[in-house]
């Protein structure tokens, strides 16, 4: 977990160097929220049971109050927890999947309080697939301290990603009794969300997120999926990091 957080901050720092900022069109600075929290979400993708796991907060790089409307580029990073098959009765006989980090870029287009975005990341560790999102969100400035966002998002993954988390190999089929399954890549989940950020002291905020996802296509049809519904609740504390040139 801490190794992934360090890599995330290293990547963010590299992308916010003056030379990189000019070449990527980041303007005169980049700001984003970074912190840690707890996420209460399905035990594994497709599970019908919820469990607590770390929430690595790296958000809102495209919602700097000083930024004008238009296009911007920022780092995109994610962390996926490990999946130990022995921990879950429904995964007995399946291979374990280790902790995974994902690193890439995010392209955002802001128009007033609306922000549309697309992100692409390469996985390392637990999976080596390519994943990303297409989405849009609406920002509500409720007060000087409280900001809300509503959003809708489509999660995408190539076949290497979907095979890791939703596939069943011949060896796994023999040991688990589940049908061999080789899912294609594409849109694997659709989500709607509500986020909140309350700045209780300068540049430090409590952040929360409620989301509801539904598995789609080959991912949703996997014999490992107990339910297509994937809700989650997250809460944590983040610090606003400001890089100015």
UniProtKB/TrEMBL annotation:
It is found in: Cell outer membrane. Transmembrane segments: none annotated. Coiled coil: none annotated. Keywords: Cell outer membrane, Membrane, Signal. InterPro entries: MipA. Residues 1-21 form the signal peptide. One of its GO terms (cellular component) is cell outer membrane. Belongs to the MipA/OmpV family. This is MltA-interacting MipA family protein. It comes from Paracoccus kondratievae.
């Amino acid at each position: 977990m801490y190794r992934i957080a360090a890599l995330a901050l290293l990547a963010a720092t590299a992308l916010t160097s003056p030379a990189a900022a000019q070449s990527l069109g980041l303007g005169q600075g980049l700001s984003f929220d970074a912190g840690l929290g707890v996420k209460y979400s399905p035990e594994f993708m497709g599970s019908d049971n919820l469990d607590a796991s770390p929430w690595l907060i790296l958000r809102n790089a495209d919602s700097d109050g000083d930024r004008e409307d238009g296009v911007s580029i920022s780092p995109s990073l994610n962390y996926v927890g490990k999946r130990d098959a022995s921990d879950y009765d429904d995964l007995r006989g399946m291979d374990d999947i280790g902790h995974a980090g994902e690193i890439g870029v995010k392209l955002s287009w802001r128009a007033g309080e609306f922000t549309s975005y697309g992100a692409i990341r390469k996985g390392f560790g637990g999976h080596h697939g390519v994943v990303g999102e297409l989405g849009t969100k609406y920002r509500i400035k409720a007060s000087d301290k409280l900001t809300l966002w509503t959003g809708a998002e489509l999660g995408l993954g190539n076949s290497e990603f979907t095979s890791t988390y939703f596939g069943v190999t011949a060896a796994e089929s023999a040991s688990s009794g589940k049908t061999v399954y080789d899912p294609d890549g594409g849109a694997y989940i659709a989500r709607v969300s509500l986020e909140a950020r309350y700045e209780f002291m300068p540049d430090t905020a409590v952040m929360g997120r409620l989301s509801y996802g539904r598995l789609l296509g080959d991912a949703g049809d996997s014999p490992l999926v107990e339910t297509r519904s994937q809700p989650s609740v997250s809460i944590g504390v983040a610090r606003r990091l400001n890089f100015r040139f």
